[in-house]
Structures are given as structure tokens and as C-alpha cells.
Design a protein that fits this description.
- The complex is a heterodimer.
- By secondary structure, chain A is mainly alpha-helical.
- Chain A has one domain: Orthogonal Bundle (MetI-like fold), CATH 1.10.3720.
- Chain A contains twelve helices and no strands.
- Chain A is flat, with a radius of gyration of 24 Å.
- The mean pLDDT of chain B is about 85.
- Chain B has helices spanning about 1-10, 10-45, 50-65, 65-75, 85-115, 115-125, 130-160, 175-180, 185-215.
- Classes of the chains: A mainly alpha, B mainly alpha.
- Chains A and B meet through helix 1, helix 2, helix 6, helix 9 and helix 10 of A and helix 3, helix 4, helix 5, helix 6 and helix 7 of B.
- Chain B: Keywords: Amino-acid transport, Cell membrane, Membrane, Transmembrane, Transmembrane helix, Transport.
- Chain B: One of its GO terms (biological process) is amino acid transport.
- Chain B: Belongs to the binding-protein-dependent transport system permease family. HisMQ subfamily.
């Protein structure tokens, strides 16, 4: 993350002329930002988005409860999918690292396939197909299964990258002192790999959490769905703007905190001397070949 | 097998229409997000503190917002501000606004891969920030930027399906229509999957080829 270091290299310490120029650019930027802000606020005022009628709903305990339930539904889907995706990822990472091609090759295909299919289409498989055969699969599980297959596949790649990031000498030394394959994995490779890949895992979980919003499209009553319900009430003059802003603040707050945690972990890992493995890049999921939920 | 084939052939126009819109969305959003993302990256490494702050704030906010929320805001909330906007432009704006944050980060980390001596030498020649970035650093960063940029674009292509939830008839909206027609959903979704694999495959091949061709050790 040498962003600051690099940007200092890109330009000289400003002299008088550069300072004047930078000041002008700064002022122009500030004016542009203010202009946009003024336009947005003027639209808000002109259409009276924050009228008492439109905001009054949020003082009702019933509506607050509704929001809390939505948040809970979001977190529930994210939590179940996280556990399942971690298991899926561990199994398929192990399979892809297997010495037997019979296991390795199909696992690779499955992981690549699930990463290539749009997540929404994966979710639709669990939503429309049972619907057609009159089987009742709750929307929660359609969402969770879709999230599991996709994020599990991405996590499998992160786990694999983490194991491969441990220098060969580590496993060679372990074999040399007579450890078995499973022992090498569990007592030498994994403990070091976990440290290297933890930041990447946490940031993939942020992606997973954000993707629970897709539940809105299959009418799973998560946060975004609740926002639409609250915003769509005619008797409160359709307070869509307020309700979406509230929900956006919740998402940005939670995801921002998790992202910051991932960043902190990464910096901490960078200093750690307890692993010989190079850290798995945090955007591993995003930089993977088949692409990811960006 | 026959009925599987018929699912596609009986509804050819729907599939064609859907995937055509998907490709249109993808192309518009690709151009838009590449331009906006590069500008944002420029802002984030610029000598002007306010520009840097604006770029950083934008990226941090957008990256932590679900794309579905951006779609919902544009489609349901923005018309309430008396700003009339159609579904297709909404989808384009949502995709561009979202993807450009990721393009920005890719470009920015690409800039960091260029050896610092390059920028220092350019500065020693008396080049300005714009010249250093535009003529020296970005052209060299380009080769390490393209592969991850391709990943971002592939992800964006897949993200176009979200527009289905917001009244745009693209590939992701096909299942809803097919459900109405009582067609086999499994076959429908398999066909859509094949469609996406067909669209993604050339991008992945291109990416691998460029990665090999431009693999440089610095």
C-alpha cells in the first residue's frame, strides 16, 4: 500500500508557480464539489424529501423494528453463507491441492465454473427451479446457496493461494523430519498460510455481506427489501430517498468497519515474523482470472 | 435433450433481446467506468489535497455500498427528486459509478508497480505532474494494469444481471419471462449460463494472452 510514497515521487515539492496552480485546481475542485452538493440539496429541498411526514415513520418503534428485522435477516443470510462458504472453500482448496488428478481436475473445473457464473443466476437456480416443481425452498436458502457456491469458490482460490504462498522449504523440511502429508498440512503449512490469507478472507466476507443485497431481487426480506417497503408507503408520501439513505448508512457503516479491519490485519501481517508466507493480496478474489463480484 | 434445445429455439427472440441488452450495458459501462476510474486514480495521486480527498472519499463510499442499493436508489429514489430518468440509463449510471471505484484502485496499484526511478528521472527533466503521469508512468503501468482490469470488466459483465431486478430486459431478466411462459427453468438457466460463458471466454483468453505477453520482471 505504498500509495502515499508513490504519489510523492510523481511530483516535485511545489514551487511558487506550482503552488498557485495547485491552489487554483483545489479551488475549482472545491467549487465543483460544492456545486454538486448544492444541486443535490436543492433537489432535496425543492421536492421536500425531509418533510415531517416523510421522516416521521422512523420515529415509530414498529418501523424501527422493521429495519432491525431487515438488518437481522441480512446478517443471518451473511452468517450462514459465510460458514458454508468457508467449508466449501476448505474442501475445494484441499481437492485442488490433491496429488490425485482424479480429484484435482474436477475440483478445478467446478471452482472455475462457479466463479464464472453471475451470482444472481446462481441464486436463480435455487429460486426458479424449485418454484417450477412446486417445491418450497425459502428465499433465505436460495440466497444462501447461491452465495455459498460463488464465495466458496473464491475462498477456495484464496486458501490455495495461501498454502502455495508458504515457501517450499517449509514443507520440504517438514517431510525431511519424517512428517506425513496430513501432518505437514496441519502443523506446518496451515498455521502459516492462515496468517497470510486472513486479510483476503475478511475482504471476501465484505463482498459476501454486500451481495446479500441481491436477496432483494428474489424478495428475501433483507435490509434493502425493507427499505423499499418503508419508502413505498403512499400515506407517508413515498419517502424512498430517506429510507434508502438510512439503509445506505447502515451498509457503509458495517462494510466500512469490516474493510478497515481487513486493512488493519493486512498491515499487521506485513510486520509479522511468525509466517514465512507472503501475504495473499487482499483483492485476490477480485484479481482472479474468472473475475469476481466487484 | 430435445426439449432442452427447444427451450432456446422457441424463445430465440427473448434470449437474443436479453443478451443484446447485456452486451450494450457492458460496452457502455466499460467505456464509462474506464474513463471515470482513470480520472479518479489521477485524482488520488495528484498533488492537490482536495482532489485526493474527493477521490478517496468516493472510492471508500462506493466500495462499501452494495451495487443493488445503487440500482434501487437510482430507480426508486431519484425520480422522487423530480429528476426523470429511464431504466436503461439508470442501470448504466449505477454500473459506471460502482465499477469506476474498482477501476480506480486497479489503476492506482498499477501506478505503484512502476519503478520510482522512472518518475524521478521524468521529474529531473522538468516534467509536470500531468506529463509524468500521462507520458511516463501510465504507459508503463498499463501492462501490469490490464490483466486485473480485465477481471474487473468480467465482474462488471456479470454484474449487469442485477439490472434484471430493475426493469431492464437483459439476460438476467430472461428467467422471469420464461417463468411466465411456463418454460423449463433449469434449461433456461443453463442456456443463460452458457451465454455468459460464451461472453466471458474470449475476455479470459485475451487476459491470459496479455498476461503472458506482458509479463515483465521489474
Amino acid at each position: 500500500m505504498g500509495g502515499n510514497a508513490m504519489s510523492n515521487i510523481l511530483y516535485d515539492l511545489p514551487g511558487p508557480r506550482a503552488r498557485a496552480r495547485n491552489l487554483v485546481i483545489g479551488v475549482v475542485t472545491a467549487v465543483a464539489v460544492v456545486a454538486v452538493a448544492v444541486y443535490v440539496v436543492s433537489r432535496f429541498i425543492a421536492t421536500d424529501q425531509f418533510s415531517t411526514l416523510r421522516t416521521t415513520q422512523f420515529q415509530y418503534t414498529a418501523v424501527q423494528q422493521e429495519l432491525a428485522n431487515g438488518l437481522l435477516a441480512t446478517l443471518k443470510a451473511a452468517a450462514i453463507a459465510t460458514v458454508l462458504a468457508l467449508v466449501f472453500g476448505a474442501v475445494f482448496a484441499a481437492a485442488r491441492l490433491s496429488d490425485h488428478a482424479v480429484i484435482r481436475v474436477p475440483a478445478a473445473w467446478i471452482v472455475e465454473l462457479f466463479r464464472a457464473i453471475p451470482l444472481l443466476i446462481l441464486i436463480f437456480f435455487f429460486y426458479y427451479v424449485p418454484l417450477q416443481y412446486k417445491m418450497h425452498l425459502p428465499t433465505l436458502w436460495a440466497l444462501v446457496f447461491g452465495l455459498t457456491l460463488y464465495n466458496g469458490s473464491v475462498l477456495a482460490e484464496i486458501f490455495r493461494a495461501g498454502i502455495l504462498a508458504v515457501p517450499r522449504g517449509q514443507s520440504e523440511a517438514a517431510y525431511a523430519i519424517g512428517l506425513r502429508k496430513s501432518q505437514v498440512m496441519t502443523s506446518v503449512l496451515l498455521p502459516q498460510a492462515v496468517r497470510a490469507m486472513l486479510p483476503a478472507i475478511v475482504s471476501q466476507l465484505v463482498v459476501l455481506l454486500k451481495d446479500t443485497a441481491l436477496g432483494f431481487i428474489i424478495t428475501y426480506p433483507e435490509l434493502l427489501y425493507v427499505a423499499k417497503q418503508i419508502g413505498g408507503r403512499g400515506s407517508f408520501d413515498f419517502p424512498y430517498v430517506v429510507s434508502y439513505l438510512v439503509v445506505a448508512a447502515i451498509y457503509i457503516g458495517i462494510c466500512g468497519a469490516l474493510s478497515a479491519f481487513a486493512y488493519w490485519l493486512q498491515k499487521r501481517m506485513g510486520r509479522s515474523r511468525r509466517t514465512a508466507a507472503k501475504p495473499v493480496p487482499v483483492d485476490q478474489g477480485n484479481a482472479s482470472t474468472a473475475g469476481a463480484t466487484v | 435433450m430435445n426439449s432442452f434445445l427447444h427451450t432456446l429455439t422457441d424463445n430465440g427472440p427473448l434470449f437474443w433481446e436479453g443478451f443484446k441488452t447485456t452486451v450494450e450495458l457492458f460496452l457502455i459501462a466499460a467505456v464509462g467506468s474506464l474513463v471515470l476510474g482513470t480520472l479518479l486514480a489521477g485524482a488520488r495521486v495528484s498533488p492537490v489535497p482536495i482532489l485526493r480527498a474527493v477521490g478517496t472519499a468516493y472510492v471508500q463510499t462506493v466500495r462499501n455500498t452494495p451495487l443493488t442499493l445503487l440500482f434501487a436508489f437510482l430507480v426508486f429514489a431519484v425520480p422522487k427528486l423530480d429528476i426523470p430518468i429511464d431504466y436503461f440509463p439508470s442501470a448504466c449510471i449505477a454500473l459506471i459509478a460502482y465499477t469506476s471505484a474498482f477501476v480506480c484502485e486497479v489503476v492506482r496499484s498499477g501506478i505503484n508497480t512502476v519503478a520510482s526511478g522512472q518518475a524521478e528521472a521524468a521529474r529531473a527533466l522538468g516534467m509536470t505532474f500531468g506529463q509524468v503521469l500521462g507520458q511516463i508512468v501510465l504507459p508503463q503501468a498499463f501492462r501490469s494494469i490490464v490483466p486485473p482490469l480485465m477481471s474487473v470488466m468480467i465482474a462488471m459483465l456479470k454484474n449487469t444481471t442485477i439490472a434484471a431486478g430493475f426493469s431492464v430486459l437483459e439476460a438476467g431478466a430472461i428467467p422471469a419471462y420464461m417463468a411466465e411462459r411456463g418454460e423449463n427453468q433449469f434449461a433456461t438457466l443453463i442456456w443463460i449460463t452458457i451465454g455468459f460463458l460464451v461472453l466471458i471466454a474470449p475476455l479470459v483468453v485475451l487476459q491470459h494472452r496479455m498476461e503472458r505477453k506482458w509479463a515483465v520482471t521489474r
